[in-house]
TrEMBL record:
Organism in which the protein naturally occurs: Athelia psychrophila
Taxonomy of the source species: Eukaryota, Fungi, Dikarya, Basidiomycota, Agaricomycotina
Domain of life: Eukaryota
Record protein name field: Alpha-ketoglutarate-dependent dioxygenase AlkB-like domain-containing protein
């Protein structure tokens, strides 16, 4: 898989009207990125990244990339509307099943 695309995102979820408690994505590779795309007609939530002491607005139409395993993250409730978030991610187990220890094992930039 790494020879085809070292940043492949084989995992996706569709989250409807869900508040996310503080967590780290422990199944993600340490160097992997989680891409969070927000949709709906809700008022924005606040995405919290406590290790960076960062709170940012995260509303419909926003796309955010974070290292979900490294950074703990959470969201706040919103005032009104329907909220949909689609996280795109990769899990270490997918790469292990292809005989690789890491998403970036065997990847070269040449």
């Amino acid at each position: 898989m790494c020879a085809i695309d070292p940043l492949i995102y084989e995992g996706r979820e569709i989250l409807f009207n869900r508040v996310s408690g503080e967590h780290a994505d422990i199944q993600d590779p340490p160097f992997g990125w989680a891409i969070l795309a927000a949709f709906g007609n809700n008022t924005p939530v606040i995405l919290k990244l406590p290790q960076l002491n960062l709170h940012m607005s995260f509303g419909p139409g926003d796309v955010i990339a974070i290292r979900g395993r490294v950074l703990k993250h959470s969201t706040t409730p919103w005032a009104s509307g329907q909220r949909i978030v689609i996280p795109h991610f990769t899990h270490s187990s997918s790469w292990t099943s292809f005989g690789q220890d890491s998403v970036f094992e065997g990847y070269t930039t040449s």
